[in-house]
């Protein structure tokens, strides 16, 4: 789904103030109903895209126009310096961010963004890049910025950058990529990074056990193919990678990509062309291509996802998958059993804001980022 960009001057605002909003009662699944309230953690953000927790009281938030904000309990929001050049526009800009699993000792963060062409990368336009950096002890600046991966080839498209990062239990990094919209067929070939999940080591090198290492004509970073526009990624309870990706008009999918497998786009899909009409042959299955774990029709424009590990909302929600919706402006809760979605529930029906990201904080509560010109970070709490 496309989105427009807006420009605002960010106000100085007081943050992490517990402002009550949106008391809602979850419906559809009465046995699992949990009444929620929201607490405003931060406001005045311009199209916030991702949340990364440093500790219970400190987080980093990316803004799509190309800023990284530090949010600390009881302090004004402040920009973190040291970012590389970012080509913001359309759906591109500063996108996902995570902190290293050993952040306490190495201060390392990983972020992905739309990288403009340069003498090193060549080509025209932009593509998704993944970089590492060291966050200063005062959390105010980045140093030792290193580009670990640059998607090839560059494209003049301002759409479908993908850009979600997951650290694998083995210490490698997964990056979910879009097919740049105008190059959908690239998702089915191995000579480019469009419409792929890639896997790299933390120094940017290629893991020797990647499925296409040593295969003629294949880029060795590729893990899986046939993806459209990956906007959510997380690790499941068993450590397995889960992603979701935008379909066209309908057919948003959840997948858990396995090495060397093909997830079908644009050959198979449960969606259709914008305005109606078949995508390709209009088929939903084909030999050698994987079926999604779950799909939404109509499209919810899924963005952000996390499994809830805590029991902050009761045992019934522990282990559930939570996915943001840009179109319906709510949060989806999905119960998973044996790797399948068995029940689904819409939360925050009165939110009236696009949910771009959802994360579980160190305190065990869920946090969401609303993708608006004056976006917010909201903490979800059980109603008292």
From TrEMBL:
InterPro entries assigned: 6-blade_b-propeller_TolB-like, Glc/Sorbosone_DH, Quinoprot_gluc/sorb_DH_b-prop
Domain Glucose/Sorbosone dehydrogenase: 45-379
Annotated Pfam families: GSDH
SUPFAM superfamilies the UniProt entry points to: Soluble quinoprotein glucose dehydrogenase
Name of this chain's protein: Glucose dehydrogenase
């Amino acid at each position: 789904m496309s989105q427009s960009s807006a420009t605002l001057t960010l106000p100085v605002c007081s943050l992490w103030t517990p402002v009550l909003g949106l008391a809602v009662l979850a419906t559809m699944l009465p046995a699992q109903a949990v009444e929620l309230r929201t607490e405003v953690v931060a406001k005045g953000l311009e199209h916030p895209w991702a949340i990364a927790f440093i500790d219970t009281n400190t987080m980093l938030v990316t803004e799509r126009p190309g800023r990284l904000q530090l949010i600390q309990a009881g302090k004004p929001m402040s920009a973190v310096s040291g970012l590389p050049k970012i080509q913001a526009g359309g759906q591109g800009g500063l996108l996902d961010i995570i902190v290293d699993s050993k952040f306490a000792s190495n201060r390392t963060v990983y972020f992905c963004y739309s990288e403009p062409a340069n003498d090193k990368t060549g080509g025209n336009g932009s593509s998704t890049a993944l970089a590492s950096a060291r966050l200063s002890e005062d959390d105010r600046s980045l140093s030792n910025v290193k580009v670990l991966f640059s998607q090839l080839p560059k494209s003049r498209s301002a759409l479908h950058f993908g850009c979600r990062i997951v650290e694998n239990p083995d210490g490698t990094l997964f990056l979910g990529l879009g097919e740049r919209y105008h190059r959908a067929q690239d998702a089915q070939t191995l000579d480019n990074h469009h419409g792929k999940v890639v896997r790299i080591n933390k120094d940017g090198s290629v893991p020797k056990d990647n499925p296409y290492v040593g295969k003629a004509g294949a880029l060795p970073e590729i893990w899986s193919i046939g993806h459209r526009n990956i906007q959510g990624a997380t690790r499941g309870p068993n450590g397995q990678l889960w992603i979701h990706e935008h379909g066209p008009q309908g057919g948003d999918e959840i997948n858990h990509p396995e090495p060397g497998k093909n997830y079908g786009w644009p050959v198979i899909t449960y969606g259709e062309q914008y305005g109606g009409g078949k995508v390709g042959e209009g088929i939903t299955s084909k030999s050698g291509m994987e079926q999604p774990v779950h799909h939404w029709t109509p499209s919810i424009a899924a963005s952000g996802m996390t499994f809830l590990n805590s029991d902050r909302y009761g045992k019934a929600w522990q282990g559930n998958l939570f996915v943001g919706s840009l179109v319906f402006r709510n949060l989806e809760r999905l119960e998973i059993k044996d790797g399948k979605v068995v029940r689904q529930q819409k939360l925050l029906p009165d939110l009236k804001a696009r949910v771009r990201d959802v994360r579980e904080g160190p305190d065990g509560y869920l946090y969401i980022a609303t993708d608006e010109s004056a976006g917010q970070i909201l903490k979800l709490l059980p109603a008292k």
